[in-house]
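Lab meeting, item 3. Inverse folding demo.
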């Protein structure tokens, strides 16, 4: 069900156009990396460490090399000369951050189960996999470090040369005057101190990773086909790591079956295929198996959070203090250290906090799969902590959680709002989002039903949870990213090319992998140029066709890349207007453009359509003096601010206290992402995101034994929700345009995930709070719930 607070359609924008991408996906016509036919390719398989922490004593590859069909076997030591630089970490969050050298294959030691040790190249995938079984590696096992607190103690130092497992400590202390945070806690009427665990999650895109590298027969050029979210960033990083002149490397992301942040990385297998294709002069390909995916692709979350709130008599926040320990895993991947820092600015949520904020995060190595970006990347974690803690504070103050939030919301008339961090939140109306959500879920009615049902002795208890979130997304601006030590920029590029027959080609630097950019960008162009979206083609994800770009992550594509497309259209219109003025013998300032036609103001008959201008620009027979032929424009846009979507989610549950089973009754998501380009896409994004957050709350978790072996390495063990596990989701929205960009848009790709885990867990605790339960760890399996009830020990 959808409830629309305000219509957003203005011409093409805001309409529910079906996605252009879907027919090819639904009929199986889309070509994924693994579908590509590549004559003469050798298949690569990777031998992975069965130990979480061990020295490599010796590797004997003789038997593998002798297997018929095997063309080469390489160990990490063999390939050391093939790397021009270690694998990249592009976010050294502090100047003294410790980052051990990391090569695509381990050489002396392994640091997690799944760490690559050797590769085989063979005529088929199955021969390659058979051959890696024949490689004989002698290991000297060392103690695994799987718990964050153990890692912090340095009982076992994982990378000996570093002398410690702590990679960095990053602080953000904002105080009106020295000691303001402590003073606020000393003066507070109410305080809470909560500890939450963000369990590790395993990203499960439908398409596991896949790579194919094709060397050109002459000239040394290599084409890397890979299931990635970041062809442009990858091109730069791979050329540096493998030592390939950048102009000789082309990166193509064919159809990509989801990424959810996990394909925002530079992976060992991409670099290995490049180096080996260069070495052997033949195409090399690699396909990840599902079980490999669970250990060799990065994992998400992995934090212990301590959050303290101070509040006055009314429950208004006066200070927030946060201490995090973040699990880096065995090595730092592309942006591993930056993930918790992305959340650092959001631990005060949507609340009007004075300058009394103290945040500190320590990133530590463990002997587990490296962590990195996973949908929301630091921001769901932050929202989880503040929103769970707000519920704890509401219990302390003795007010309803919704009322406590209303007392603390940043007032709408304070926008644009300069937050305690100095960042400016662009726009917001938190009370409105919360009110729409409360109406949709019948908040007051449910509270009444809950009071009637949750009586002493009741074995079916009702709970309602909510979460009001803010998200900092639309990643850009480059200068702010620089101040956070991030090594890349945040701009985005777009070219809009009106072809002679007036069809339009858009070249975008974004790299969609499920988000529907072809549809949305076509709609933006159609709206601007007054043409049919079907007449627009969007080219992307190939660095030869779209050489400039910063790719797709951080819900940046619309507020940066889509806005760039709109700006390029404006430039096209400006140029076309000069040609139209020339043809109509009018002053360009007197021309109006609407519905794809230029008209002279006040002279309705004097008009010329864009189609005629496009042809005139192509023939160049009669252009204004000095004007270049052709009708195209390029824009590289670096926004002045992030985009700040917000919203309120609510959820109701019924819990069987005898079995610990949770039944999610209803879920309402009210999200405000400014102007919506396509409400169908927005709702799809919200639905997917909500399910991912709900999955963290109730089902998913990477479980390791104390030796660092993953116990959830197949889909039989790792509990992903099926469609039948998902409750009805009602989406609502409000529209608070962003003043930052001309389209008024904010991102939405992660929004559903940001607030959903905390919403569900607040509902679970709300249902059980009458039994003395104040916390339930995620995932809230029936067993965990049952344990929490018993530990609380209150009579039911
Ligand atoms: N949109 C819109 N109106 C708005 C906001 C967005 O119509 N006001 C549309 C956009 O036009 C775009 C889509 O919603 O088609 C998402 O836009 P945006 O919020 O800019 O996010 P990105 O396109 O940059 O996508 C990245 C985001 C992230 S960070 C993750 S993780 C994620 C996600 O998108 N992974 C996904 N959604 C995913 N969806 C699918 N199917 N698969 C993934 O791997």
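The presenter then showed the designed sequence:
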């Amino acid at each position: 069900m959808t409830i629309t607070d305000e219509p957003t359609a203005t011409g093409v924008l805001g309409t529910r156009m079906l996605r252009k991408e879907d027919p090819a996906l639904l009929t199986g016509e889309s070509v994924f990396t693994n579908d590509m036919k590549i004559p003469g390719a050798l298949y690569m398989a990777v031998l992975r460490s069965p130990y979480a922490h061990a020295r490599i004593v010796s590797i004997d590859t003789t038997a593998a090399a002798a297997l018929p069909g095997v063309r080469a076997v390489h160990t990490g030591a063999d390939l050391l000369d093939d790397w021009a630089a270690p694998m990249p970490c592009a976010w050294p969050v502090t100047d003294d951050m410790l980052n051990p050298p990391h090569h695509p294959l381990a050489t002396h030691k392994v640091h997690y189960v799944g760490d690559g040790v050797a590769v085989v190249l063979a005529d088929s995938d199955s021969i390659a996999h058979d051959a890696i079984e024949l490689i004989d590696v002698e290991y000297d096992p060392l103690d695994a470090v799987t718990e964050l607190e153990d890692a912090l103690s340095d009982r076992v130092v994982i990378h000996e040369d570093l002398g410690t497992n702590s990679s960095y400590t990053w602080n953000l202390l904002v105080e009106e005057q020295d000691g303001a945070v402590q003073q606020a806690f000393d003066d507070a009427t109410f305080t809470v101190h909560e500890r939450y665990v963000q369990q590790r999650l395993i990203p499960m895109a439908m398409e596991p990773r896949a790579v194919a590298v094709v060397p050109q027969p002459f000239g040394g050029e290599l084409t890397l086909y890979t299931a990635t979210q970041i062809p442009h960033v990858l091109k730069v990083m791979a050329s540096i790591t493998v030592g390939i002149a950048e102009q000789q490397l082309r990166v193509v992301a064919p159809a990509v079956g989801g990424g959810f942040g996990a394909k925002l990385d530079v992976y060992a297998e991409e670099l290995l295929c490049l180096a080996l294709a260069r070495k052997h002069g033949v195409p090399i390909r690699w396909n990840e198996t599902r079980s490999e995916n669970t250990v060799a692709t990065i994992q998400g979350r992995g934090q212990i959070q301590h959050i303290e709130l101070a509040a006055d008599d009314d429950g208004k926040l006066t200070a927030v203090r946060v201490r995090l320990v973040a699990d880096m895993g065995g090595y730092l991947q592309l942006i591993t250290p930056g993930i918790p820092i992305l959340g650092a600015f959001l631990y005060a949520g949507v609340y009007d906090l004075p300058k009394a904020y103290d945040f500190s995060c320590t990133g530590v190595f463990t002997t587990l799969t490296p962590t990195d970006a996973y949908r929301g990347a630091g921001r769901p974690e932050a929202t989880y902590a503040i929103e769970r803690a707000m519920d704890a504070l509401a219990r302390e103050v003795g007010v309803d959680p919704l009322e406590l939030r209303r007392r603390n919301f940043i007032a709408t008339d304070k926008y644009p709002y300069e937050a305690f961090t100095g960042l400016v939140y662009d726009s917001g109306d938190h009370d409105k989002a919360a009110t729409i959500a409360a109406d949709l879920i019948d908040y007051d009615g449910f509270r009444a039903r809950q009071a009637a049902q949750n009586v002493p002795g009741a074995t079916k208890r009702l709970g309602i949870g909510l979460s009001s979130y803010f998200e900092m997304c639309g990643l850009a601006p480059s200068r702010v990213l620089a101040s956070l030590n991030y090594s890349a920029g945040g701009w985005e590029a777009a070219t809009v090319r009106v072809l002679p027959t007036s069809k339009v080609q858009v070249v975008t630097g974004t790299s969609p992998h499920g988000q529907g950019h072809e549809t949305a960008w076509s709609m933006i162009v159609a709206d601007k140029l007054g043409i049919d979206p079907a007449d627009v083609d969007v080219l992307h994800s190939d660095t030869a066709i779209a050489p400039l770009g910063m790719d797709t992550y951080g819900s940046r594509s619309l507020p940066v890349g889509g806005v760039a497309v709109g700006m390029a259209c404006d430039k096209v219109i400006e140029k076309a207007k000069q040609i139209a003025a020339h043809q109509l013998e009018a002053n360009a300032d007197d021309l109006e453009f609407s519905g794809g036609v230029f008209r002279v103001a006040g002279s309705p008959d004097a008009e010329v359509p864009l189609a005629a201008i496009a042809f005139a620009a192509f023939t160049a027979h009669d252009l204004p003096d000095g004007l270049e032929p052709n009708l195209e424009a390029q824009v590289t846009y670096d926004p002045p601010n992030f985009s700040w979507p917000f919203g309120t989610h609510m959820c109701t549950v019924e819990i069987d206290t005898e079995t610990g089973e949770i039944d999610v009754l209803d879920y309402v998501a009210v999200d405000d992402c400014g102007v919506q380009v396509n409400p169908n896409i927005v709702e799809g994004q919200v639905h997917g995101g909500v399910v991912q957050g709900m999955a963290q709350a109730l089902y998913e978790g990477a479980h390791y034994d104390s030796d660092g072996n993953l116990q959830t390495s197949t889909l039989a063990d790792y509990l992903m929700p099926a469609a039948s596990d998902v409750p009805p989701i009602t989406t609502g929205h409000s529209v608070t345009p962003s003043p930052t960009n001309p389209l008024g848009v904010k991102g939405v790709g992660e929004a559903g995930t940001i607030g959903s885990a905390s919403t569900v867990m607040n509902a679970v605790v709300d249902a059980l709070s009458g039994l003395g339960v104040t916390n339930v760890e995620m995932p809230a399996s029936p067993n965990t719930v049952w344990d929490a009830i018993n530990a609380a020990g209150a009579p039911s």
